[in-house]
Structure prediction request, 514 residues.
Amino acid sequence: MSRETKRRRQAMVAIAAAVVVSVVVLASYLLRSLAQADRLREQSLLAATYELAQDKASRVDRLLFEQDDAAFSLAESDEGRSLADRWLPTAARITPTIRAVIVLDDLGNVVDFASRSLGPIEEDEEFRRLVVARFRNAFEHDAPGENLLRHVHRNEGDRSFLLSYRSASSASDRRTFVAWHDLGRVVKDVFPRAYGDPTQGSHRLDVLDEQGRIIFGPPLRSSRFTVSVRFATTIYGWRLQLAPAVDEELASDFAHRRRLDMALVIGASLMIVAGIITVGLAADRAWRASELKSSFVANVSHELKTPLALVRMFSEMLHDDRVPSPEKRREYLGIIHTEARRLEGLLDRILDFARLEREPRANEFIVDDPSDAIAEGVEAHRSQAMSTGIVLQAKIEGPLPPVRHDPTALTLAVSNLVDNAFKYAAQARTIAVSAHHDATGVVITVVDDGEGIPEAERHRVFEKFVRGSTGNGRGTGLGLAIVMQVVRAHRGTIRLDAAEPRGARFRIRLPIAS
Prediction:
């Protein structure tokens, strides 16, 4: 590997590493951004659900406040009539959940009392005792002029009580007005008015008491989109739960979106990295091809220059009649003839390669026994074998089954393999060409007992312009590339193996025609 090639590859590796690191950093940033966007979407949905839950809880508070205001307005009016006369006639209509109203003076004495209860009178008496003995101590007293409406929600024994109260001060005394809300009526009357059908609409809700028991609405499946809020000022011991009607679909959609985003980011990152690697490999291949072509031009120039120089030199000697004897004249003519054939072979090789590159399918196929084409490719080198002293053997186990082949192209392929053996097996004693068939195809084998091809070079011997390191230094690097093109055009395969005990073996397999 040249120093320039090494520097170029080091630069490519550095650029590719920088790009990969940049892609990893960008992908990590995008994944974090997408995860943050998902969290923001979930938080926005939760915030909207929580705000809606607070609004729904405040609806119940407002309905109860309206009843309290109506009841206390009647209780505070001074018309000379009893509380029962002022409140009870309209109680069922304007205060449907209030069961009883009691008025206390500053000392905690019951000033007035009215009840809508149809049950035993003992319940009303028990309520009056509880208000005086237990609840009164929990009441907050306002400064003069405030008259704020407040609520107490707590358990006494096995019962849950909701009381609303308000203080009214005058110059002479202070009175506290207390309303007892029937929680059963709150559930049956106020909740349906505030929420309608809890199983319909875009959200589902239910209401839980202090022990976590569902007292209104269907049970909700727990999910990360379910929110729970307490009623702010009235029944603050109870909780309202709210969830989107499609919470499972939302969770699935968020998960699907998250997986899709991750797949897109990772896929895009891998595509970028793969693209960079592909471009780098393509650039390296192009640079290597450029170097090989430059080497090819130099080799061809040298191959053309040497025989041309010999032809010119000996033709000038013959032309100037500077030949000392008839034997030398014949020798010089033989050299001119040999070099001319060498030039012709070189040009034919280049033209064959150019034709196959330009028209890879311009073959004239026939379905016949390929024995003659194989033999012709071998006999083309018979005189070369005689001049070099190498034994050229041909063994064709015919007749061979018919194969679909172009005789000219197949002859060219066999001839190039034999010529390659002569060129890269200078120490060989024998070059053997054989052809036989088996159940699947016709096998053509060219074996020499020369130095062989180094294992590190075998994977590149069929590439264009590549020449082996063990040879006579001549050639264009196109012979085996032409063989590969011919074999592919015939839908066959070619394989290179090391021969035993030394040398190289090329094996072509052509499929039998159906």
Notes: Residues 64-245 form a domain with the Profilin-like fold (CATH 3.40.1840.10).
